[in-house]
């Protein structure tokens, strides 16, 4: 009788490990008899109904198989090691760090592509309103934190905006005394901007952004031509009365600008950029004319230290 009970206990113990255990990814456990495992599917029968139909399940729906001999097999292993619970195994996936890394890498790649072109040629669309045509070259360097700015303009009509600013700060009539003579320059007008060229070195607040503010010094030179009328009152001591003389003249104005540039650069695409610019500073003017117009101009010139202004809206091509 003792031998009989020992045999029964041995058979029960053997039956406890004679089935395979299949854990699905929804944490369901099934006691089965595995028949076949191929690259995409698993075929099995229910352990409690081995005479029943063969069941097929996709491998991607299975997390773990524990065979009757105790061997464990993890299927479709995730990036991180799955955590298996005895009764209800659960595979934990953490894709957030990977997604963040991929997103950051993509943004860096997109920005690297955006600033891969360092040279920029632009047209200032506001310059034609002032009677000139402008072409500007810009070159970025120092990891996009600095750029060189070289604008050049050639006039084709009267610079009305320049005339308006000059009149605002200095007027259009100038007068001064020369010995006993009284001289007045009137009808002062610019007729043409011959050229305007300069050099600016700008610091960009962000070399790692599609939109950056920049600021920096600018030095330039320009030349204008124009006309004026001179009225001179001369006292004749011999006869004791004044004589008057009026004549028309033309001048060439050579101007030096010392300014502070301030603006925003939009890197819209790797080839297309937009730049907005506003500058202020001081002009130093020298005239070439038959009369001493330089003295008249400077004698009456507004003494406010800021008398030069410039603005621009430019569209450009990067290469």
Account of the 3D structure:
The protein is α+β, with helices and mostly antiparallel strands and 319 residues long. Helices cover 16% and strands 53% of the residues. It has four helices and 15 strands. Strand 5 (62-66) and strand 6 form a beta hairpin. It is rod-shaped.
In the CATH hierarchy, the third-tier topology of the largest domain is known as Porin
Spans of at least 5 consecutive residues whose pLDDT stays below 50 are 4-17
Number of domains as seen in the coordinates: 2
Radius of gyration: 44 Å
Taken in chain order, the helices and strands follow as: HEEEEEEHEEEHEEEEEHE
* Overall body shape: rod-shaped
Described by strand count, sense and barrel closure, the largest sheet is: 8 strands, antiparallel, barrel
Looking at the overall shape, the CATH architecture of the largest domain is Beta Barrel
Global mean pLDDT: 82
Strand order of the largest sheet: 7-8-9-11-12-13-14-15
Indicate the structural class: alpha+beta
CATH class (first level) name of the largest domain = Mainly Beta
How much of the sequence is in beta strands? over 45%
Strand tally is: 15
Number of helices: 4
Helix content: 10-25%
